[in-house]
Amino acid sequence: MEKEQKKSKRAVPLKFNLAFATGEITDAVSYQGFSFLIFAFYYSIVGIDLKYVTIIYILWSIYNAFNDPILGGFSDKTRTRKFGGGRRRPWMIVAWIPLSLIMFFLFTPFSTYANHPVWVSIYFFVIICLFDTIYTMFSLNRTSLYPEMFRTDKEREEAGAGRRLMMIVGLILAMGLPTFIIGDLTDPANHYKYWIAGAALGVIVFITAWVNLKWGVKEPPLEHMEKIDTIGVLKSIWITLKNKKFLIFVLCSMMNWYIFALFPMIIPYFSKYVLGIHAGADWMASNYGIYAALLLLVAFLSSAIGVLIWSKVDSILGSKLGFILSQIYWVLVLIPLFFVNNYFVALGIMALNGIGLGGSPYFIDRNISNIADDDELQTNQRREASYYGVHALIIRLSGILAIVSIFIMLGSKWSIFHEVDFTSNPPIVELKSLVSWFPAGALVLGIIFLLLYPLNKKKVDILQANYKKSKK
């Protein structure tokens, strides 16, 4: 009897929750590992001029503007018995092994920019586009399962908290493992160490994705899905783009993703040229990449505390107001990064930032789930992948904003990385601004968008009540 009572308290079985959440490790290791290493590799190791890196990033983001929503639309229409059957699982299975392999090939142009500038630039552009296509096939479908498999607030709170905790494990692996293998992320002599790091990340992706697919995916029976009419891909995208609630929210999300794109690119340089040089920290000289990664890892670890705090706030105040409060908090703890010069003080400030960081992915998923529920009342269909696909389309603009921000602040000084000695005159103010005022300003814009977002706690409670009635 006592066991039954304990079971009844849990809306989602623990084994299933853990297996589903393990997919967050796959996601974080692949995308955050990519984000953390790719800029430093092609800019500092391969030696591509910053203005050409900026152009390639912009072209890549434009490609993603078409890639993500189209794949989302096709996912919503899929009904097949192949590759495990269903509509989300088949796409994930197709992407599983290629995603594991491409983590290695991201770092294998087999030449430097100085020797073969055209070839290396083309390789850089093609491989990051290929990576994003494969990653989207896996991640978008896995993420779309969250609001589809977990329908009540209680289920989503449990599954959402589990996902965020597993995401932290993935982020630790994505940042920590490569830096211990590579050491100095900007030393051209470490070219081949990037290969080893990429291969190690690929193995983790392979294993965790297998666990996720084996025990963490549960779709409705195919017979049930085949009875439901589907909307065409383009029509589905168009309906999504006309949803004002969604468009307002996704602009807020883009401001958060701007920080997610900017920080992994700029923190290694902030660590070396602001915290290391200014403090005369010779102990950071040979392995500064590890200390740069620690700044991010401390934030990710403390984001676990943030997830727990914001999930409680969510249950009391709702996903809209909870997100607003988390953003206000994050703005307040970003600003001190402009004034810091000591590495250990920076570690403490990044730990405080992690609590704000923990709210963003948690509340983004919670609110998109609410939007998908609201959409179901209008269309009588579950179209999570279309929403996540168009969400990915718009947040990809954050990547353009991030690289353009770097170019505006550093382009005149860092256009050609290897030809200038930055240790004598490092761009201290510029780097400090990129980790404080720029992201804080983006979050203020995000808060303004959230204030206009209409799905507050009262309206979400009505959506949940309507769902429960439909199940009776």
TL;DR of this structure?
This protein has 18 helices and no strands. The chain has 472 residues and is mainly α. The longest helix has 37 residues, at 343-379.
Explain this structure.
This protein is mainly α. It has one domain (15-471): Growth Hormone, Chain: A, CATH 1.20.1250. Helices cover 79% and strands 0% of the residues.
What would the CATH topology be?
A: Growth Hormone, Chain: A
Task: Label the CATH architecture.
Answer: Up-down Bundle
The beta-strand count equals 0
Which value, in Å, is the CA radius of gyration?
Answer: 22 Å
Strand content: under 5%
Determine the N-to-C terminus distance.
Answer: 27 Å
CATH class: Mainly Alpha
Query: CATH superfamily name?
Result: MFS general substrate transporter like domains
Order of helices and strands: HHHHHHHHHHHHHHHHHH
The description of the largest β-sheet is:
none
* Mean residue pLDDT: 83
When the domains are counted, the total is 1
Structural class: mainly alpha
pLDDT < 50 stretches: 1-8, 416-421
Percent helix, as a range, is over 70%
Number of contiguous helices: 18
Please render the helix and strand layout as text.
Blueprint: H1 2-9, H2 14-45, H3 50-77, H4 89-105, H5 117-149, H6 153-182, H7 191-215, H8 222-226, H9 233-241, H10 244-278, H11 288-317, H12 319-334, H13 343-379, H14 384-395, H15 397-414, H16 428-435, H17 437-452, H18 457-471
Helix pairs in contact: 2-5, 2-6, 2-7, 2-10, 3-5, 3-9, 3-14, 3-15, 4-5, 4-7, 5-13, 5-14, 6-7, 6-11, 6-13, 10-11, 10-13, 10-14, 10-15, 10-16, 10-17, 11-12, 11-13, 12-13, 12-17
